[in-house]
Give the backbone structure.
Amino acid sequence: MSELIIEPIEKYGLNISHEKKALFSRIGVVGAGKEGRTIINLTASAGMDVVFMDESQERIDFVFQELNRLMDKKISRWGLTQSEKKVIMNRITPTLSYDAFAGCDLVIECTRYSESGRRSTPLRKNIFKILEDILDPDAIIATNGPTVIISELAADLAHKERCVSLYFPVSHPDARILEIVKGMYTSEEVYSKMEIFAQLINYMPHRVNESNGNVSIRLLTIMLNEACQMLLERVTSLQSIEETFTVIYGQRYGIFRVADIVGIERLVTIMEAMFNDFGEKHYKPNPLLWKLYRSNQLGVRTSKGFYIYDENGNVISENKSLFN
């Protein structure tokens, strides 16, 4: 009788343990403010499973309410169906514990700005340390923001090379450029993976070396300061400056409208940081910006900035009190 030959058959079958995990199949988001919700929506819509963390169940309920509102608005404009919305929402998982990020390929720190427009660097460094203990060594840890901090956030970690900074513009839904900032420690491999991530969410990746304000904010703040100065000098009206941007230069919104959308408190804080870094006067916030900041007229979020807004963020009128 011939000897029975036994050969493993796993390589011929559909054994789940032999499936190769897709890159960015599961990502995490720490903090679900305006920017965090944008990232959650983008990534879940692109087919990724998303775990997001916020500070309380009340905040988590609010986040789902806002995501539902955003998708319902898209449905009303024929940009999404109810079935597609259900699929997207099923990809989103909330958590109150960092442990839920285990197994993620990428976790993006998106802690919310304070009322003054600042974000705590010690808090963010602590988040990075917690994530390093939970994530696999090849998982990427990112922060979202336009300021030079990624090298500082990564400095105390064992795997510094996997840290990177991202900036998602929030001026309008089609601002699909992702600024990918390489820090002093960021590896080329990590940068290349983030280029793939940008393409997966249908964004154009832009490589940026560490520079406070990146590219987009540096351009915006200089234009905004000049526009504010023309208003102070009564060179022309707010409406004329806005139409110069939208008609002559083909921008979707005028410069003051963009400032209200981004948030006056954020812009003033970032501009002060840029002025301190570079010492260039053109980054110093204009007195009009300080007037809005100190009176808590911060743009769309507070329903009053350069414009006055209704509860849905639609413009009602110019803010005439700005010149009182």
